[in-house]
From TrEMBL:
A Gene Ontology molecular function term of the record: methylated-DNA-[protein]-cysteine S-methyltransferase activity
Domain (Methylguanine DNA methyltransferase ribonuclease-like): residue spans on this chain: 55-129
InterPro entries (alphabetical): MethylDNA_cys_MeTrfase_AS (IPR001497), MethylDNA_cys_MeTrfase_DNA-bd (IPR014048), MethylDNA_cys_MeTrfase_DNAb (IPR036217), MethylG_MeTrfase_N (IPR008332), MGMT_N_sf (IPR036631), WH-like_DNA-bd_sf (IPR036388)
Alphabetical keyword list: DNA damage, DNA repair, Methyltransferase, Transferase
Pfam families with a match to the protein in the record: DNA_binding_1, Methyltransf_1N
Taxonomic classification: Bacteria, Bacillati, Actinomycetota, Actinomycetes, Streptosporangiales
Protein name: Methylated-DNA--[protein]-cysteine S-methyltransferase
Amino acid sequence: MRTWREGWNDRIAATEDADAVDRDIDALINAVSAVPPGMVRRPQVAPREIPFDVVSGTAETPVGFLSLALTPRGLVSCSFDSEDTVLPRLARAVSPRIGPHDAWLEPVRQELNAYFEGRLTAFTVPLDLRLTSDFGRVVLRSLLDVPYGSTTFHTDLAARIGRASATRAVANTLATNPLCLFLPCHRVVPPDYPGECGPYTGGTAAKQYLLRLERERRSPKTPAF
């Protein structure tokens, strides 16, 4: 059976605008090379080798496979959903011109590996937040203020963005976070934590794993809340 990705690859036009493709490639190179020197190795790719608006692939991690997608703006998806779920969403919201290119996802995979090995506490890959709403972007950006190894409550997150009465909307936004781990919604827990860690798109076991990993690796000066 053909995959969703293969079907879209067949629909990519055979005669592309060469200048437009080159501009896309240059933008993608700039997005990837924005990662600080020494953190990743910039892949060497021949000009016009990747005529896509979205580069997609997967990463195998201790909490399962993640579906990844990168645009010229940055990482647009890091999801526990399968590619058959993620790619149609990207086609509607970003572009149907989607294709694989492992080399361009290498910086993302390297940072994920470093995170799970306990060597990285803050991701540096540029992010593209177009898969969420304006309100969602405010909520998800606020997650970056929750330190590695600490946790917060939905109510505190709502208050932090000046929407104390929007706790349910905040919870709904976290449930549809398109950039899991990179925007750390796993750090938002219910009031009775550590008795219960709360729901998570990757499953309760994955959330417990991430919280434990960060708790064990955090600096002694990092507050738990």
